[in-house]
Amino acid sequence: MDARERLIESAQDLLWERGYTGTSPRAIQHRADAGQGSMYHHFAGKHELAREAIARTADQLKAEAAASLATPGTATEKIGAYLTRQRDVLRGCRVGRLAADPDIITAADLREQLAATFAWLRETLARIVASGQRAGQVSPRLDPHDTAATIVAVVQGGYVLARSADSTEPFEQAVSGLLALIMKES
Amino acid sequence: MDARERLIESAQDLLWERGYTGTSPRAIQHRADAGQGSMYHHFAGKHELAREAIARTADQLKAEAAASLATPGTATEKIGAYLTRQRDVLRGCRVGRLAADPDIITAADLREQLAATFAWLRETLARIVASGQRAGQVSPRLDPHDTAATIVAVVQGGYVLARSADSTEPFEQAVSGLLALIMKES
DNA sequence: GTCTATACGGGGATAGAC
DNA sequence: GTCTATCCCCGTATAGAC
């Protein structure tokens, strides 16, 4: 694997662990086993490297979400599969984590990558909710887009609660609580 | 207002805006209009000042949550009041925000302040859900603690989505979606 | 492509004067 | 209590050699 590749992957790791503000070029170089000159040869600076790293992470996340949602079965089964898919709960969401970072929110090009990722996820879930309504598995009284936002928010908020508690339990409770609400009428 | 007080309030502001990692002693001193010597006279360092600031913020947050939950009415009305209370959505949660910060999660004494705040909030909401069940307004099939975790997670996750989108809309959708789920049977 | 040198301000704190 | 001086390393690059 060449240096450019190692730099991107190291940046992905560090952005996940420490966010943008908490990640220094030096730390990325160390983890990538690349020198100062190498990094600044391949990227204009921290910002540009972060952009590449976030794009890569966002793509991976979408692929993983799509895979869990491709579970065969009813709409509620797909949503259940998404909610209960394997997660590194205490490490948090690789994309959502960045929303807390002031320098990400300020940099329009970086923030938009988060916006696009969540927009895609919400839209995908909304379609599944709507299809569940057509199939009669989901209450027609629910708004698909609102419900999709709720589902994504429970996951993101679950991470916050789990990291605060240093325990996966509140994440699991939040997901169980949501599933119970969605299934209530079935 | 004395310098000690100004330092704590400045630290509260900056922790909200930039997190722990993103906040330097210098920045706090500047905002507080206090010198280096003043800060290190009143506090042993950044860590100790942050602890005081977080304690203060956590107390304020609990007081505000308790106030919204003291709304007269049924359990579902209280929950609705909590969910729709006035919020600075794009600035995020002053406590939940810190869960993304690696240095907060690593420092047990700081992280525990977040844990305690959310534990209190979830327990308070769980009691309200349970009382709603006794009064027949909430489905007896729901687990009060799970449901409480879901409610808190929707709020925390709503902040993440709103900040990512640079719009309050997804927050409002997530809350509406949750309210629809809770009210579905009423 | 990668290395080393150099730069300048900031992060986070200690020491001692006033 | 607050000020100023001082410290040392890090953050974030740029420049030019190899």
Structural account:
Two copies of one chain form a homodimer. Chain A is mostly helical and 186 residues long. Helix content of chain A is 72%, strand content 0%. The structure holds a DNA duplex (18 and 18 nucleotides).
Chart the SSEs and their pairings.
Two copies of one chain form a homodimer.
Chain A (H helix, E strand, L loop, with lengths): L2 H16 L6 H8 L3 H7 L3 H24 L5 H9 L18 H5 L1 H27 L9 H22 L3 H15 L3
Chain A binds a DNA duplex (18 and 18 nucleotides) through helix 3.
Task: Give a brief outline of the structure.
Two copies of one chain form a homodimer. The first copy, chain A, is an all-alpha fold.
Q: Helix content range of the residues of chain A, please?
A: over 70%
| Structure summary, number of beta strands of chain A | 0
Largest sheet of chain A: none
Radius of gyration of chain A: 19 Å
Number of helices of chain A: 9
Work out the largest interface and the residue count of each chain: A-B, 61 and 61 residues
Q: How is the CATH topology of chain A named?
A: Tetracycline Repressor, domain 2
Query: Would you identify the CATH H-level superfamily of chain A?
Result: Tetracycline Repressor, domain 2
Strand percentage of chain A, roughly? under 5%
Return the CATH class of chain A: Mainly Alpha
Which class best fits the helix and strand makeup of chain A? mainly alpha
Mean pLDDT across the residues of chain A is: 97
Search tags:
homodimer, mainly alpha, 186 residues, Tetracycline Repressor, domain 2, DNA-binding
